[in-house]
Design goal:
Elements: H1 4-7, H2 14-24, E1 44-49, H3 55-67, E2 71-72, E3 75-76, E4 83-88, H4 95-109, H5 125-133, E5 135-139, H6 143-164, E6 168-174, H7 180-185, E7 190-191, E8 196-197, H8 201-218, E9 222-228, H9 241-249, H10 258-261, E10 266-272, E11 278-279, E12 282-283, E13 285-291, E14 299-303, E15 306-310
Parallel strand pairs: 1-9, 1-10, 4-5, 4-6, 6-9
Antiparallel strand pairs: 2-3, 7-8, 10-13, 11-12, 13-14, 14-15
Helix pairs in contact: 6-8
Length: 311
């Protein structure tokens, strides 16, 4: 029988433990507008905004920063060189747009210009292929498929870890509220001979949260979940200042069940500029950190290079 002293004997010093934890779970600063707060695995970040407010593009830019290497052939890319799993619940993801965004990031990091030589662009195709292998994609058409995906993710993540030599670092969900109205309309009473509960909004949310929590225990990841807002007030024309303030205060009305809200550790709200200003002919969007609450916000636009924060 092992003695108590040998059981509590330390296998590593505090310094060694800290180095190991920071290596396995590094703090990462994501591209704008998520750059204000350092994030790490275990955090669940909710990106909230109306459609369109660049939510999917923000996920794409974060995914590219994750799958790019820190360094490649003596060139600095500043990435994590880790895998990303993108779960598409909107079923509108455009892989061609994603690949073009990745190309632009590679070209920009090298200080190159996209020059056409026949049908070829001037960028590192070997690096591009290596990055694309780290981008994992799946789509779900209803809550049944989403729950089935979550329940089988542990096996898939383990296979990818063995295949790529590293764990998946980010889990992205676009959009977590995609099936809200369908699930809300589902009856909550028991049905069937075996008296099983139907797939109601509450049971779906509880099951989703339980599965994500189980995944994070065994496969620590940073979770980024986009969510569309329900707009209670629409702008028929120009608003008075009083109406504009009222709309701004109602711009985020959380409709997800409390069990999901309790899982979220960070929440950022995106919305259009109240005065409909433009910058270089691009509409301006505003950010607001709701969780944790920050006293400052950023203005950003979306152009060919992605999300650009402006002063």
């Amino acid at each position: 029988m092992t003695s108590a002293s040998s059981w509590i004997k330390a296998d590593e010093t505090a310094k060694e433990a800290l180095v190991r934890i920071l290596t396995e779970r590094p703090v990462v600063v994501l591209p704008p507008p998520l750059h204000r707060l350092p994030l790490r695995v275990g955090n669940v970040v909710e990106i909230v905004g109306p459609s369109p407010s660049a939510k999917t593009l923000i996920l794409i830019q974060a995914a590219i920063s994750c799958i790019l290497p820190k360094e490649w052939k003596s060139e600095q890319y500043g990435g994590l060189e880790r895998a990303v799993l993108f779960v598409d619940l909107e079923c509108r993801f455009d892989v061609l747009s994603f690949s073009r965004a990745l190309e632009r990031r590679i070209i920009g990091a090298n200080g190159l210009r996209s020059s056409m030589k026949g049908n070829e662009k001037d960028y590192d195709k070997e690096l591009f292929a290596a990055c694309m292998k780290r981008f994992l994609y799946t789509r779900c058409y209803n809550s049944f498929e989403f729950l089935a995906t979550l329940k089988t993710l542990h096996y898939r993540l383990q296979k990818e870890k063995e295949k790529q030599g590293g764990a998946v670092y980010m889990l992205m969900i676009d959009s977590i509220g995609a099936f809200y109205w369908v699930d809300r309309a589902a009856p909550s009473s028991s049905t069937g001979k075996n008296n099983r509960k139907s797939l109601s909004l509450q049971t779906v949310a509880e099951s989703v949260v339980q599965e994500i929590q189980r995944l994070l225990l065994v496969n620590p990841m940073l979770v980024l979940a986009a969510k569309s807002t329900i707009e209670a007030i629409r702008n028929p024309g120009k608003w008075s200042d009083e109406k504009a303030v009222g709309a701004r205060n109602q711009s985020h009305r959380d409709y997800m069940p409390s069990v999901w809200q309790s899982l979220v550790s960070h929440r950022i709200l995106l919305r259009g500029s109240d005065d409909e200003r433009k910058y270089q002919n691009h509409p301006i969007f505003l950010t607001e950190w709701l969780l944790p609450s920050l006293k400052f916000s950023d203005n950003f636009i979306v152009n060919d290079d992605g999300v650009l924060v402006i002063l």
